[in-house]
Amino acid sequence: MSADTLSAGPPQIPLWIDGKPQPASAQRFGEVFDPARGVAIRLTPLCEAQDVERAVSAAARAFPAWRDTPPLRRARILMRFRELLEADKENLARLVSEEHGKTLEDAMGSVTRGIEVVEFVLGIPHLLKGEFAENVGSGVDCVSLRQPLGVCAGITPFNFPVMVPMWMFPVAIACGNTFVLKPSEKVPSASLRMAELLNEAGLPPGVFNVLHGDRVVVDALLTHPLVKAVSFVGSTPVARHVYETGTRAGKRVQALGGAKNHAVVLTDADLDFTADALIGAAYGSAGERCMAISAVVAVGTAGDALVARLKSKAAAIRVGPGCAPGVGMGPVISAPHRAKVAGYVAQGVKEGAELVLDGRGLSVPGGEQGFFLGPTLFDRVRPEMAIYRDEIFGPVLVVLRAATLDEAIAMVNANPYGNGTAIFTRDGAAARRFRNEIEVGMVGVNVPIPVPMAFFSFGGWKSSLFGDLHVHGPDGVRFYTRGKVVTSRWPESAAPAPGLNMPTLG
Ligand code: NAD
Q1: Count of CB atoms within 10 A of residue 470's CB?
Q2: Stretch 467-478: mean pLDDT, rounded?
């Protein structure tokens, strides 16, 4: 949408630079929808390079003083931020639910998972402690330090407007960096609210900034000389682009991509428990979670009984606006995305998969213009079908059959994605083998969505993550700091001067 067509349309979301809201110089705008009504409720400015310059310069100016602020004082500001988040939790969840479409309860859960990262970094004075060795040579001591990098950038997807940014900026800021966040243009409001709360908590101006936009702003951040590190979460093609462009420009980059997460169900699993777990993992948040289970591999004879349970439980899910009580699943994010998901369902039928439950005909009273799709279930899917190969990112669950655990493990390992996976069984030895042999970054044993707690690190393997370090937890602290080792000697007056040979200290 261009500036000319704006007139008296929906309100514009501001940027946040130097501790206050600021207008963008953008001439282009994106529409933010209420997906349950299919109505544009806000406009996101799509920033240009000059906005990036303003935000990065503000962050660069704020860096020296923030870096020199003792970690304990930084932690105290974040402690106040945590209290404000807790008090504002429902409001934040409402913003998430309104712009994303997920249910309010689900949104509350995701805000809680974000707050847990803030709780983790309250221990930053301890997390930044280095090592010290006395007398590594005669009269020589050695200390290792971890220091902040400078201006860091975060680029985030539409599906977790609070949680995913909070995987990044609390850790970066606690480590002494300053930050520029570029949230998804589809869900911009929660980032502004978090900026206001950080300001209220006493964060100095310029330490946290928010820009909006699309590829133009992302590419400007990826090549800006003052940006030292980039954290990205989104789809695999964009993650690859961000990793390649950012590293070519000499930056440290972690880029988390898409997923196709498998649940392997063995014949000895408790099928009622398993089906309940899979329903939540497949259809929660309308399947728009990077850790959603989107493929089930039923081993041996588990298939028929499992599919019957999945069908009746999926058909019972109440679909409607995320803010309405009793609703289990909201709409998907946009009309084009709804059409894309429905297109995959049509293709699955064409390729010969068995359509057990079809969500395409769903009608939600009062939500005729909303982006709703009902839960959809396919059985007897084969690995070459598009509904298995591609990440659909909607309420579509596909069931494949495997004769043995070996075959199931081989199937999961052959998939290009490696974000999350789970096994359902009562057999400890089988679970142990699965845990050991599976080529996936996050593994659940009778746990369908094994998202690590904030004090562990989150990240996938293969096409689900480009880079070496995962987000938050210990990897997050490593990502946002660099190591330095200082070797010191305080020579006494009679000590011999170092010679020309390689020093051996001893
Ligand atoms: P997306 O890749 O379309 O967008 C992510 C971010 O990149 C947004 O901020 C967007 O503005 C920006 N962007 C989009 N196209 C770009 C381009 N060509 N160049 C530069 N920047 C661009 O992803 P999305 O649709 O917002 O989110 C859904 C995807 O995110 C799914 O694939 C999902 O699996 C993935 N995801 C992964 C994780 C994880 O932890 N691995 C977590 C959440 C979501």
Answers
A1: 23
A2: 98
